[in-house]
């Protein structure tokens, strides 16, 4: 499985280089160096784009768990957790469970844990939000690990207002649009919604690249 994933990641990187007419980089440098550079560029561009939108709108489009999502979308793009379905549903579940924990434990108007410290109610809210998020992602078969961080961001009071939910999801959607564009540009069959459970992504993407 490790070798298979490594081949898939290299096909993603080499596909983008070919589309941009930068194949010489793959010939000049080692695979590890090129893939590390690709991860650096994608991570920088993806978060910079969302942060720039947040800057010009002065709205909270960016939040910490998007960093983990960006890594998954570009490192293992054909895995189920990287699909648009899992990414969107996972973060939505995490955010909703975070808000539910704030209501449940009376923390709606409380200052964040970063400002006031962690009391018993905050401990309970954080624990509940993460546990409920994991339960619902498993129940609905939409696992996306960074969504656990989203639940904690909300339940710790860093994004405590329900009005921030559309902005949070907009940030996720912007990241998915970039992932779809770059992954398809590389020749990978990145899904429109759900990952194909029985597809051989290495063989498929290899065929696309050779064609």
From TrEMBL:
The keyword Kinase does not apply. Keywords: Membrane, Transmembrane, Transmembrane helix. InterPro entries: HPP (IPR007065), TM_HPP (IPR058581). Residues 35-191 form the HPP transmembrane region domain. The chain crosses the membrane at residues 33-54, 61-80, 92-111, 123-142, 162-182. This is HPP family protein. It comes from Marinobacter nanhaiticus D15-8W. The lineage of its organism: Bacteria, Pseudomonadati, Pseudomonadota, Gammaproteobacteria, Pseudomonadales.
């Amino acid at each position: 499985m490790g070798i298979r994933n490594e081949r898939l990641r290299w096909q993603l990187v080499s596909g983008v280089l070919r589309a941009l007419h930068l194949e010489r980089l793959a010939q000049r440098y080692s695979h590890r160096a090129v893939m590390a550079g690709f991860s650096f560029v994608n991570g920088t561009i993806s978060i910079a784009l969302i942060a720039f939108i947040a800057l010009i709108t002065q709205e909270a489009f960016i939040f910490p768990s998007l960093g983990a999502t960006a890594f998954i979308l570009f490192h293992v793009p054909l895995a189920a957790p990287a699909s648009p379905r899992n990414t969107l549903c996972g973060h939505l579940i995490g955010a909703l469970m975070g808000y539910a924990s704030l209501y449940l434990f009376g923390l709606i108007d409380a200052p964040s844990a970063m400002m006031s410290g962690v009391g018993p109610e905050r401990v309970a809210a954080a624990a509940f939000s993460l546990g409920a998020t994991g339960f619902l992602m498993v129940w609905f078969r939409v696992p996306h690990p960074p969504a656990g961080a989203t639940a904690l961001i909300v339940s710790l009071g860093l994004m405590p207002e329900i009005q921030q939910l559309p902005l949070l999801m907009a940030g996720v959607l912007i990241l998915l649009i970039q992932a779809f564009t770059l992954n398809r540009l590389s020749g990978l069959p990145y899904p429109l919604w759900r990952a194909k459970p029985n597809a051989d992504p290495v063989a498929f993407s290899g065929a696309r690249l050779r064609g």
